[in-house]
Design a protein that fits this description.
heterodimer; A: 207 residues; mainly alpha; 10 helices; B: 119 residues; 0% strand
Chain lengths: 207, 119
């Protein structure tokens, strides 16, 4: 990420590019602000899980790109605007998380030693949905929607997680990472699992 | 490239507003990993995440071409090659009926006359 935040003049130029529908500006906004936003949220929300903070920062950046007119330069500088938007998004995420408390226990998908396909622990409502909706082929709408938009590697990883697989080397092999050093394999597998779990949480919250 | 940016680039692979969505469709159809996609695009490896984070080209033909030209110019990649990748991705999306409006995007990808140097 850039070492320092854009100046307000640079921010205004970026905002103008968004308003002019410059496709590259979307990347530049993420590049300029995402890491700074995550860093800004962290000390103010220490008790909040990191993936929620990251999601809130991502949401704020994506929202500005898609609706640049939501920012009015006359009312202040861009970074404080994004910080407020991210904090607001985080509050909304937390409220949704509370509403869905107990609805999803994604960790248990991979931590349950006896988790068979679509038959997890009794308190794992994510897996319960599979059983309730279609015990044979597991067409939970949430998972089905996720799979429809997931990349091939995400699909492979989720299927292994649902199979109760816990061995990183199995995931690495399925992803074609077997030639990488073990540490690198574990890191890549963990990143993918974290991404999938974060997406599932987001989709659960928005459903 | 920060992990957060890479994670966002992966997240938006499911968002049709982002170029990542089209690049994913193409890569999956061609069974390309990231180095393979980089080679297909002719871009620098370090630019792949940045490319994914760009907005997808707009749907009408003139703007589609203008957006592709803008992205290609910014990342110093061959415009015709990028156009070929995105046309293929749009065709895949239209065939899959991945989202409403895909017909418009397919037309946008096809209707414009090719540039003089395009085979």
């Amino acid at each position: 990420m850039p070492a320092s935040l854009p100046t307000q003049a640079e921010a205004l130029a970026l905002h103008q590019r968004l308003l002019r529908d410059d496709p590259v500006a979307w990347n530049d906004v993420a590049w300029a602000y995402l890491d700074h936003l995550i860093a800004w949220l962290a000390p103010r929300n220490l008790s909040v899980p990191e993936d929620l903070r990251v999601t809130a920062a991502e949401d704020a950046v994506m929202s500005l790109c898609k609706r640049p007119a939501s920012y009015d330069p006359a009312r202040g500088e861009l970074f404080p605007f994004l910080c407020m938007a991210a904090q607001r998004d985080l509050q909304n995420l937390l409220q949704k998380e509370k509403r869905h408390q107990g609805a999803v226990s994604l960790e248990s998908v991979e931590q349950s030693p006896q988790a068979g396909k679509y038959l997890g622990k009794e308190d794992d409502s994510c897996l319960k949905l599979y059983r309730e909706d279609d015990p044979n082929d597991g067409h939970d709408p949430l998972i089905a929607a996720f799979l429809a938009s997931a990349s091939a590697e995400e699909r492979r990883v989720l299927e292994l997680m649902l199979d109760g697989e816990r061995d990183s080397s199995v995931f690495a092999a399925a992803l074609g990472l077997g030639d990488l050093p073990v540490q690198e394999q574990r890191l890549r597998v963990k990143q993918l699992k974290d991404r999938i779990k974060a997406r599932l949480r987001r989709e659960r919250r928005s459903s | 490239m920060s992990r957060a940016l890479e994670a966002l680039a992966r997240r938006v692979e499911g968002d049709p507003d982002y170029l990542a969505f089209l690049l994913r469709l193409y890569a999956e159809a061609e069974q390309l990993d990231d180095p393979g996609l980089t080679a297909a695009l002719g871009c620098r490896p370090e630019d792949l995440t940045r490319l994914r984070l760009c907005r997808a080209p707009r749907s009408d033909p003139a703007r589609f071409r203008a957006d592709v030209a803008r992205i290609a110019g910014h990342f110093e990649i061959d415009e015709v090659r990028l156009l070929g990748v995105l046309r293929r991705a749009e065709a895949l999306r239209a065939l899959a009926g991945a989202e409403p409006g895909s017909r418009g995007m397919l037309l946008a990808a096809r209707d414009e006359e090719p540039p003089e140097d395009e085979p």
